[in-house]
Amino acid sequence: MHKLKAWAIKVIYLGIALSMVLGLTLVAAPAISTVNAATSAVGIGAYDAVTKLQNQISALPASAFTNPNHKGTLLNKIEAVINQVENGAYNGAINKLDNDIKDKIEKWVVASQQATLLASADVAIASVTNASKTTITISTGKLAGADAGNNSWVWKGIPYAKPPSAN
Fold first, then answer.
1. Which residue stretches of the chain are H helix?
2. Residue-wise burial string across 125-156, b where 16 or more C-beta atoms lie within 10 A, e elsewhere
3. Where are the domains of the chain?
4. pLDDT digits (tens, 9 = 90+) for 88-135
5. Which fold has domain 37-152?
6. Which of 68, 88, 140, 160 could join 62 in a cystine, given CB atoms 3.0 to 4.6 angstroms apart?
7. How buried is 20 (Cβ within 10 angstroms: 0-12 exposed, 13-18 middle, 19+ buried)?
């Protein structure tokens, strides 16, 4: 334990000496708050969660990316996830969000913008996971549910009746 403390003190002194010699300023890293994605996904359908992430990325200026071309590429990847969700390919959508899009956010987006996007990606993953568990077939096609909280599910947009007609 004593050796560990001595080593840590040497590293601190070395950092201070280097900052003085090179004229650098040491700045503390910004705190990153963690979000419980499952709790944040309550009431949010898969399509809505992925579209929210897409809108957040669209709203970023080109300067928020390490390369301005990365914005368009990332939006194309999100569009592919939206297509997967619309076609019920939930496992593929989850895989792409978790192993491709989150990776690109960490590599291509400046650090100050990453936390919000990564939290939204986690909510999208939770929402798509919920959709994979709750998709049902009705007379007009498939309908995906969302977590309604309190150990319950909700299905929105169910067509109950035709609208009134002039006849």
1. 2-22, 37-40, 46-59, 69-86, 90-96, 102-108, 111-134
2. bbbbbbbbebeeeeeeeebbbbbeeeeeeeee
3. 37-152
4. 899 999 999 999 999 999 999 999 999 999 999 999 998 899 888 888
5. de novo design (two linked rop proteins) (1.20.1440)
6. 68
7. exposed
